[in-house]
Design brief:
single chain, 136 residues, mainly alpha, two-stranded antiparallel ribbon, 2 strands, 4% strand, flat
């Protein structure tokens, strides 16, 4: 049995959409006609953002348990420095510049930028357009 209520549901892609009820049908038991704006229809088709995996927080807890009383600030900096990798190390200068520009314009993750740039042959404008269309 599903006991979730409507307050448990959250649709980030639809939070700025308007649902406009239309005229009621002639049948009393039928629901009213509903019209959705084109923006709302597009938002319904857009992918939901990835869930945050709490990787860094879990690593801090695991390391603190191992070291019993370790300094959380030191643990955070060590985990952050170990988890950073240069995704552009095999890129040409042109590709690296396109990556930097896309990252600064979209503020997307490294993986998303690399994926979209690779899809478009490192065409910056096409990659940015794909990003804002919701492709990942």
């Amino acid at each position: 049995m599903n006991t979730s209520s409507s307050t448990d549901l959250h649709y980030p892609n639809l939070e700025h959409c308007d649902i406009i009820p239309g005229a009621a049908s002639t049948n009393k038991n039928a629901p009213p006609n509903v019209t959705l704006s084109s923006e709302c229809l597009e938002a319904m088709a857009a992918p939901l953002p990835d869930l945050y995996d709490f990787y860094i927080e879990k690593e801090i807890q695991r390391n603190m348990k191992q070291k019993e009383g370790g300094n959380p600030t030191e643990l955070l900096s060590s985990i952050a420095s170990n988890s950073k990798k240069d995704v552009t190390e095999n890129f040409s200068l042109f590709q690296r510049e396109a990556f930097k520009k896309m990252k600064s314009i979209t503020d997307a993750s490294d993986d998303v930028c690399v994926t979209l740039l690779s899809k478009t042959g490192f065409k910056l404008n096409d990659s940015i357009e794909l990003f804002y269309r919701g492709e990942r």
